[in-house]
Write a structure and sequence with these properties.
Elements lengths: L26 H9 L3 H11 L12 H16 L3 E2 L7 E4 L3 E8 L10 E7 L22 H20 L7 E7 L7 H8 L8 E7 L9 E5 L7 H8 L6 E5 L8 H5 L5 E5 L18 H20 L15 H7 L12 E3 L8 E6 L4 H4 L7 E5 L2 E2 L3 H10 L3 E7 L7 E6 L9 E6 L2 E10 L4 H4 L7 E5 L7 H9 L5 E7 L2 E7 L28
The structure holds zinc ion (ZN).
The site of zinc ion (ZN) has 3 residues, from loops.
């Protein structure tokens, strides 16, 4: 059992606990559904939807309607329940526009009235105009990434969910929005004239432009629209190790906004803008098919978990105010403290101690009269053995301490009193809570050279567990980290990737770092989710 499934602390983790939900999940069935999302099928859908014969899929055009016809054919083949008007898959509106809608009714009699929307817009800009194209206009804009990629992803999600031998507990509405490029028309129309009562919608996913994964980076929007979503994403990302770029701002730039606006939690995944965006060159051969598969499979894990969870987290009203500007303020790392001593040194060689290679002007080292070429033999009563240990000694020492140096030409070492700057530091971190994520802290400062720095921690890292133990809040985290006399193992998340980091501070009142009794993990090994 991984820590996030522990209820020992009674922390509100309902959603992230739910991979092992109230009922036993058929792991083999889950895997079969997960594996039904294939590179070849995704590629096949994108190839078709981004073919010239659909003429850029402009809403209301013959090409746009033909693309809708392709979606209808796939949904019929997969025998999805129609969820449009009058027992059909279609909701018509505007100038010949069509949303295409299908549903899986949930299997739990108490939860099936709750509905999770999984949507993507299938329209694009046709041949482009000065208003919607970066040109050249007049040529077919195939919109392979925008948004044949997301449409294909949702088609594969329909297939994955219909592959399950039993429906998930909650219901799922699959929505292919029309008219997004004309101003989110399809999703706006649906939320004002919903074919499923709007108060039944508990969550909405949006896949818009998921076909150009580059450097493994995926932008995530809406992760603050309900508590705990960042953690949920990061836990499921263990399988994919995508570099998740969590963006606070939720803008009216795609269909998830129509739901967010109405107080429904949302998640939108997006592989980023590129030079072919809204140009005729957004073609199928430029799609990263493996990347599209990873994003689609991640969406499957998330949607499956939310569909099975005992509770879906509620919308956070505060997220409406959490802009990208608020994010950059919150994520501004604290300025590093000035160095306590102000020395640089060379590598260990045959002679005792460390050779000083630089003394910073006006530093405590300069004030104590230390010089380049001196060798540091002892510090605060400890023999100096290597640079990493020396850094920890400097950070942990009281302000008034002493240093023993050997000066070139002198026969004997000499002791020098030194007055360090700032307060002693043992671990070397400062942290803060995030109102959108309970039981998580974010590091705001990592002192250079400290045990935390040496463990590879960095500002903005998020910590989920200490020695395998969840914690309730920042205060409890502080107790677990600072009270320890043992190596401290942190479960850390950076850009959505989980990894363990072991902090090896100096032994209490000792001269050497603690030694980890467990072998260090292989490079960045994350705990893998059991499925
Ligand atoms: Zn677009």
């Amino acid at each position: 059992m991984r820590f996030w499934r522990s209820t020992a602390l009674g922390v509100p983790l309902a959603v992230v606990l739910a991979v092992a939900p109230a009922r036993a999940v058929d792991v083999a069935a889950f895997h079969a559904a997960f594996n039904s999302i294939t590179v070849s099928e995704l590629g096949h859908h994108v190839d078709l939807l981004a073919d010239d014969r659909f003429e850029g899929r402009e809403a209301g055009s013959s090409g746009g309607r033909a693309a809708g016809g392709y979606l209808l054919q796939v949904l019929e083949e997969l025998q999805l329940e129609p969820a449009g008007e009058g027992g059909t898959y279609v909701q018509s509106f505007g100038a010949g526009y069509r949303n295409i809608l299908g549903m899986i009714t949930g299997g739990d009699p108490k939860l099936r009235h709750e509905v999770i929307v999984i949507g993507a817009h299938y329209d694009h800009v046709g041949r482009g105009t000065a208003r919607n194209s970066f040109g050249p206009t007049g040529q077919i804009h195939n919109g392979a990434d925008d948004n044949a990629s997301g449409t294909s992803g949702v088609l594969e999600l329909v297939q994955a969910f219909t592959t399950l031998p039993e429906p998930p507990r909650r219901s799922i509405l699959f929505a292919f929005w029309d008219g997004e490029e004309k101003g989110l028309l399809g999703s706006k129309h649906w939320t004002s004239a919903p074919t499923v009562p709007l108060d039944r919608i508990v969550f909405a996913f949006n896949a818009d432009m998921i076909g150009r994964l580059q450097d493994n980076r995926v932008e995530v929007y809406g992760s603050r629209s309900a508590a705990g979503l960042r953690r949920l994403l990061s836990q499921h990302n263990a399988e994919f190790r995508l570099n998740l770029d969590f963006k606070w701002g939720v803008n009216a730039d795609s269909d998830h906004y129509s739901f967010f606006e109405r107080g429904i939690p949302v998640l939108m995944l997006h592989t980023g803008l590129h030079k072919d965006y809204h140009r005729p060159s957004d073609d199928t051969e430029r799609i990263n098919r493996e990347g599209t598969q990873s994003v689609t499979q991640l969406m499957f894990c998330l949607a499956y978990e939310l569909a099975e969870a005992d509770a879906v987290p509620a919308f956070r009203e505060d997220s409406r105010l959490e802009t990208n500007v608020a994010q950059s303020e919150f994520e501004r790392a604290m300025a590093p403290a000035p160095p306590r001593l102000g020395l640089s040194w060379g590598t260990v060689d045959a002679a005792p101690g460390l050779p000083i290679t630089r003394v910073a002007a006006d530093s405590p080292a300069a004030q104590a009269g230390l010089r380049i070429g001196d060798r540091v033999i002892r510090f605060n009563g400890c023999d100096v053995t290597d640079g990493a240990q020396f850094q920890l000694l400097v950070l942990a020492a009281p302000r008034a301490t002493d240093i023993v140096i050997l000066r070139p030409g002198d026969p004997e070492p000499q002791g020098v009193a030194v007055e360090l700057r700032g307060e002693p530091v043992r671990v070397g971190i400062a942290w803060d809570e995030d109102v959108a994520e309970s039981s998580v802290v974010m590091l705001t400062r990592v002192v250079p050279g400290s045990a935390a720095d040496q463990a590879g921690l960095a500002p903005l890292d998020r910590v989920y567990a200490v020695d395998g133990q969840a914690f309730a809040d920042a205060r409890e985290f502080g107790q677990l980290v600072t009270a320890t006399t043992q190596p401290v193992e942190l479960l850390v998340e950076r850009h959505g990737v989980l990894q363990t980091r072991t902090i090896l501070p100096l032994a209490e009142a000792g001269c050497q770092r603690l030694v980890s009794d467990t072998p260090p993990p292989e490079d960045g090994t994350a705990p893998t989710q059991v499925r």
